[in-house]
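Q: Please design a sequence for this.
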């Protein structure tokens, strides 16, 4: 009896537990259903389906749902936005704040620019003097000078003996005794043609004595570049004795990037700062932009002339130049960081207010100081996105707004289809391996297909004719050609790799 009672008691407890579990599960199921239903209703898409797309390839649109030909996933529908502008996108203000979107106003101003470059001091090659002999002779004396010495104008360089002058000078002294002025003038002219300087002729006439030695002097003040004579040397007529370079003015030559030389003009004033005299800024003038560019550094040499009355500027010194450049005419300016350059065009994202943004194609001009001139596309006072625009641009690309910019003749709100976004008649070529053949479909693992922008992948194609796969089996290497028909990719050519088509 005790055992029977225990068994009955255990059965009753089990039955009660089962009933309680069923009731709890039923209640939980009802609660779950009640909580899921509103969520499902909230997720129910609203509005008209415009097209289907693969989120990984958002620019490719399809006119019906199905599996993505690019990835192993289902296509996602794109719904029309209620009351929205098809050329703009709407983003919740809290989202734009999280994205760090910063706006800037399109303003009118002057795009100032300054070209800075390093330069070195050089000799002024237009201020050069060459000292040569006028008659054959011998060097009697060379003064204590050497290349690199700075001398004044008229400083003696060398004494030269010219024996041929002796007879001509005696003739001049004899003619002077006749008193015939015409004959005296003719004799004096003959001495000049022999290379005798005027000072020596005058000295001979005054002293009445022959003098065949002349002193060669510096015609200008400057530095001796060359001194090619020594005592005892024989000189021929026209031989170079010395070469001098003036120091009253010097040149600065700066290597300026060729992209900046378009704003530099001959005659323009340049501000110069010398490393040796940082507290004494100077100004010079651009005298030449040399016509040959350095092919390695892509720079052009700009030549600037500086006065050097005090002689403190020495060739080889380092300097920094600054040239004011740019137009003084006001133009529309935006921050350079607001521009999105695609390679074929330039875009900015404008804010139309109330959380709406719109991509606009613009034509840009010069750039300087973090600002870029806008030639066309914007008006003064508009707001452009200066930070976070690339995230908005990605959203615009996803929603097809950029396609409208590319096709300005398309009707706003028209339903995009696969035929309008992909070439339907082009035949794309590829190679791969047969994975599976199923009636009118064939699965291939193929390599990259450049004409479609695809990488290597495995995907299923339709066969234009089932006979194309005749004689093929999984594992065969094949070459194929396919076309795109809406959302389908249809094999038009198929043969074993290396075989006949």
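A: Design:
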């Amino acid at each position: 009896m005790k055992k029977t009672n225990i068994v009955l008691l255990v059965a009753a407890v089990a039955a009660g537990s089962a009933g309680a579990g069923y009731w709890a599960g039923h209640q939980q199921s009802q609660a779950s259903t009640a909580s899921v239903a509103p969520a499902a209703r909230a997720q129910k898409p609203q509005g008209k389906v415009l097209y289907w797309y693969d989120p990984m390839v958002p620019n490719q649109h399809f006119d019906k749902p199905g599996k993505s030909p690019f990835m192993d996933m289902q296509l996602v529908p794109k719904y029309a936005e209620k009351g929205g502008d098809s050329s703009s996108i709407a983003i919740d203000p809290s989202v734009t704040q999280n994205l760090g979107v910063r706006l800037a106003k399109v303003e009118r101003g002057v795009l100032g620019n300054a070209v800075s470059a390093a330069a070195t001091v050089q000799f002024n090659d237009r201020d050069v003097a060459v000292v040569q002999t006028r008659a054959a002779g011998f060097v009697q004396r060379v003064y204590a000078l050497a290349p690199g010495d700075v001398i004044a104008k008229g400083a003696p360089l060398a004494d030269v003996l010219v024996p041929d002058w002796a007879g001509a000078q005696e003739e001049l002294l004899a003619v002077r005794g006749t008193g015939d002025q015409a004959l005296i003038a003719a004799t004096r002219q003959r001495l000049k043609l022999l290379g005798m300087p005027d000072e020596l002729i005058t000295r001979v006439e005054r002293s009445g004595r022959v003098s065949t030695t002349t002193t060669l002097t510096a015609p200008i003040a400057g530095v001796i570049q060359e001194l090619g004579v020594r005592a005892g040397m024989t000189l021929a007529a026209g031989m170079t004795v010395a070469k001098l370079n003036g120091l009253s003015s010097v040149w600065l030559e700066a290597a300026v990037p060729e992209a900046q030389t378009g704003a530099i003009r001959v005659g323009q004033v340049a501000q110069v700062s010398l490393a040796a005299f940082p507290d004494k800024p100077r100004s010079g003038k651009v005298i030449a932009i040399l016509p040959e560019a350095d092919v390695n550094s892509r720079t052009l040499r700009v030549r600037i002339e500086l006065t050097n009355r005090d002689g403190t500027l020495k060739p080889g010194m380092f300097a920094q130049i600054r040239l004011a450049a740019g137009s003084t005419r006001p133009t529309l300016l935006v921050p350079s960081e607001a521009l999105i350059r695609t390679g074929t065009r330039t875009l900015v994202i404008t804010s139309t207010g109330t959380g709406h943004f719109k991509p606009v194609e613009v034509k840009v001009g010069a750039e300087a100081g973090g600002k870029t001139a806008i030639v066309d596309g914007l008006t003064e006072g508009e707001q452009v996105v200066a930070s976070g625009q690339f995230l908005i641009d990605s959203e615009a690309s996803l929603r097809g707004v950029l396609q409208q910019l590319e096709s300005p003749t398309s009707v706003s709100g028209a339903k995009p289809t696969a035929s309008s976004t992909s070439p339907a008649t082009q035949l794309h070529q590829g190679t791969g391996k047969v994975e599976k053949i199923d009636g009118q479909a064939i699965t291939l693992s193929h390599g990259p297909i450049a004409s479609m922008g695809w990488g290597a992948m495995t995907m299923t194609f339709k066969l234009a004719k089932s006979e194309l796969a005749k004689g093929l089996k999984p594992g065969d290497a094949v070459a194929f050609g396919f076309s795109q028909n809406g959302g389908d990719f249809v094999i038009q050519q198929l043969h074993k790799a290396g075989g006949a088509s």
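Q: Thanks. Anything notable?
A: The two ends are 92 Å apart (CA to CA). Residues 2-43 form the longest helix (42 residues).
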